[in-house]
Amino acid sequence: MPAARTTLRRGLAAAAASSLLAVAATACGYGSEAKDDDSAKSNVAAGGKKLSADTVKIGYFPNLTHATALVGIQEGLIAEELGGTTVKPSTFNAGPSEIEALNAGSIDIGFIGPSPSINGYSKSKGQNLRIIGGSASGGVKLVVNPKKIKTLDDLKGKKIATPQLGNTQDVAFLNWISEKGWKVDAQSGKGDISVVRSDNKVTPDAFKAGSLDGAWVPEPTASKLVAEGGKVLLDESTLWPDDKFVITNIIVSQKFLSEHPDVVDAVLRGTVNTNKWINADPDRAKASANAALEELSGKALPAEVLDPAWASIRITDDPLAATLQAQADHAVEAGLLEKPDLKGIYDLKPLNKILKAAGQPEVADAGLGVK
Question: How far, in Å, CA of 262 to CA of 266, rounded?
């Protein structure tokens, strides 16, 4: 390994630990505080029998890529499987705060992106969480100013935003740049392309003002940029086998999984039922998700943002484990992460039991499951 690259990797290790955790701030975030959603209408199924825990605390983001949680809680589909066990939802706007909440026992189960899952598991040396299911794929696009950028080759010399150093989209863009044969210093973002780390809250205004030429961002930020006159130049899903890559996982505290497997099973049945409900009637599900967003944030997404954003996200039970490993590899290659040992990060046995009982195909852990 060249000395410069070794120095870079060592120098970035500490920064990557926090920045990779902050993923979904990217894919999902507006702020960083957790919020207990005590107003949810269907937290307890009427007349149901309580399971081994009085309450299950579920964390997720108020974002379309967390549609399984938004719709499953909004429609009572998760609570229905839990009987008399109460669902206590909490919303988060950044990966680090959700991982911290899981580690502290403030939540038991969470919906979260791949980078914080990887980083949380690695930092705890495999002791804090398991990925127990999938939730969403896709929903990430390169949107550009069509007056300045006509083709992908035109990106050279331009200012392109990603949400945060080392987050899922930042790693994907750096990997794409490397495959083009261009050079960018991962930490500074300087090189053949200027990679500008910009919070999703401010990226649309910066793009509108002309200080950014484009952005590699998740939904709904991508569709907000299109609404401001941008053009989708590349959908990241086209870079992946079968156009699929994980954007949202379901994780659980290992302690909670060990102590309350019946509750975990019930939540997973609820998410499987929710995903089936979403895919059977996507328009109704889209409206439900937007209603949940309005209840949580006070503002629904307008149709010109909601419709294209929703169309680009695939809701799935499959955690797409091979793509999680690939994303970790890309971070290592960019010098943003020391190679992690991800063996044991998945426990898909409960999910596969549920899928088999429902007559659906089982999902794979890409060799990263518990033995």
Answer: 6
CA distance 197 to 174: 12
How is residue 246 written in tokens? 């994980």
Long-range contacts of 199-207 (CB under 8 A, 24+ apart): 199/25, 199/29, 199/163, 199/164, 200/25, 200/26, 200/29, 200/30, 200/163, 201/29, 201/30, 203/161, 203/163, 204/228, 206/161, 207/143, 207/145, 207/161
Tell me whether strands 159-162 and 214-218 are parallel, antiparallel or unpaired: parallel
The answer to whether 211 and 232 are in contact (CB under 8 A) is no
Query: Could you tell me the pTM of the whole model?
Result: 0.83
**CB-based contacts of 325: which residues, under 8 Å, 6+ apart?**
342, 366, 368
260-300 tens-digit pLDDT:
999 999 999 999 999 999 999 999 999 999 999 999 989 99
Give the whole-angstrom CA distance, residue 42 versus residue 76. 5
Of 245, 243, 250, 244, give the one whose Cα is nearest residue 354.
250
Strands 55-60 and 109-112: parallel
Q: What are phi and psi of 47, to 5 degrees?
A: 75, 10
- Mapped onto helix, strand or coil, the DSSP state of residue 15 is helix
Beta bridge partners of 249: 112, 134
Between 261-280 and 282-297, two packed helices, what is the crossing angle to 10 degrees? 120
